[in-house]
Amino acid sequence: MKTIKNLLWTIFICISCGAKAQVKPSFSDRLKLITEEQNPLKNVATLYSAIRDLKLDTVDNAENIDVLKGEVALSYLRKSNDTEFEKYIGLIKNKFNQTSYLNMASERLLKDRSRLNYAEVLAKKTVDLYESYKDQPLARPATFPIEDWNRFMVMAAYPYYQVYAEILRANKKDKQALLYAEKALLNKDPQNVLQSSLDVYTALLVSQGQQEKAYQILLKQASIGKSSLEMKALLRTLTVRKMGNKKASVFLDSIEKNISPSYKTELLKKMHTDTSAPDFTLLNLEGKKVSLSRMIGKVVVLDFWATWCAPCIASMPAMKKISSLHPEVVFLFVATQEQGKDAVSRIKSYIEKSGFPKDTLVDSPSSEQPIQFPVSTAYKVTAIPLKVVIDPKGKIRFKAGGFESDTELMNELETMIYIAKKQ
């Protein structure tokens, strides 16, 4: 699943890559230093040493310097030094780059549920600044094609308005939040926006007395199997109001049953025929060995994930729900691609905060090759999250990567488990 931050960063990098000058490869090393360093003063030193050592020109390399300044600004935000944060935001030359970093900052505060009043100030600055330059030709970098610039301006509106809407909602300003949620989704197909956006939009519609509009959106998403758990709950509430509890249950159950056959038809085409699941033995977080070979006779679902992977974390509520519905299935959550010596403590910390997933195994890197994770390599994991469904005979039947919505993942896994049981 994409996040607002991922989407915005993609747009931002594309804009920055439009700069005409090529910078030495070590620029990325300096940028990495700043993004990983917690001390803002050290980041300021890295910023100016990078400009000096790499001979970054204030005109030809303006975009790259903007990125460094933006990251320095974020490091001050993390320390709640708003004066220095705003100072370095103000030093960014390109207005698009300014709005990008303002938006990243407001989204970070929203995610942490920290200083939401200041987050609202930053989000408003973001949309006000964006609206001030989006139609101004001078805001476009000279070497960036105008067609691409116009396209990016349209794309950028979505994360800017969406983050502002979510912050306003968090601050209990639903009426204003709905206006910006509608701006974010203007002329967009609900199937092509983030699940979280529809969560917020439909909830705001209901809060502002537009239940029928929300109901139609929720019903459409449910009929194609792309609802979140929050959307399903809201749809049930609205349906019960319309029909009563008994009729609502029958009606919603019929929607679920209509989805299942289409999933089954599509997934049968993707089923692996005769691929043995590589055996492995990993330690769980209590230090006990868990071997796949001991699971023969049961359907096993492997979930390859990492604490730093936003789509992995976003999929966890759905995984928690479906694992609770299938106690007969073994769900093993394989934490992989966790770099650094404190990997296990990071995993434990996440699970302590979230309470899930407790059945986690740690795919530690090879001592000879620290960037190679044995189980991930054996299962040819190229991206996470990745779900692998293994039948009772130890054969891989399905691999499902990525994450779009709770309901889609649950319907997909529900059908995969059903098919695997029959093999």
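^ that was protein a. below is b, sequence first then the tokens
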Amino acid sequence: MAILVDPPAWPAYGRLWSHLVSDTSLAELHAFAAAHGVSRRLFEGDHYDVPEEAYDALVAAGAAPVTSREVVRALHAAGLRLRKRKGERPVERVVGLDLGDGVPRDVDLLLSDWEPPAERTYAASVLLRDAAGRCAVVWSTRRRVWGPPAGRTEPGEDAVATAVREVAEETGVRLARADLHLLGHEVFRPAPAPGRDLLAFLTATVPGSPALSGSDDETSDHAWVTPAELERRCAGEFWWPLVGHVLALGPWARP
């Protein structure tokens, strides 16, 4: 088990950057990064981008200096290599998630305005905010957890149509398609439904602070909560890194 870092050679934002990786697990990588002051906001799905001025300190802390080619080989050998499309920002990878059907799945959480194809989209989730910056949460009677309005697509729907319908059913808030903006998506392996492996992650802000009320039997309570309260209720959920990153909460807080 080792933490590896390549030389700072990748230019961006007026400086050079290195890649910090584990040859074993993301848990090991996150623990090392947190212990040595590397912000979680620098995580890119299978590695941390670290600025050139941090390189010597990371090596002194135990990261093994290797070439960039060795970094890529180590990720492939460990099964941690993440391929992404242009414009996607990986936030986290969840390994062995059980959605309640007994099938372990790996999930990549990605920020992006890339519109997921309707034929691959099986569900949508909405970070709904009011004019004061509070977030809507609903209580799932099936899963017995708090979370943002969300649900599976119905025949003929794309991600935005699903989001409009689910928000109306679970909170009573009526949105137009133009109110919604794509923030990213969750990619599941294996797919939760035949040929459908994507959950779209969207956001919308409504004027004022309308009363919340649901019309379906899958939710039983609804509330506007501050980002801090949202974190208290939901930080243990697998999807939380996407919301935490967007709202700059916890380890994703901006310096």
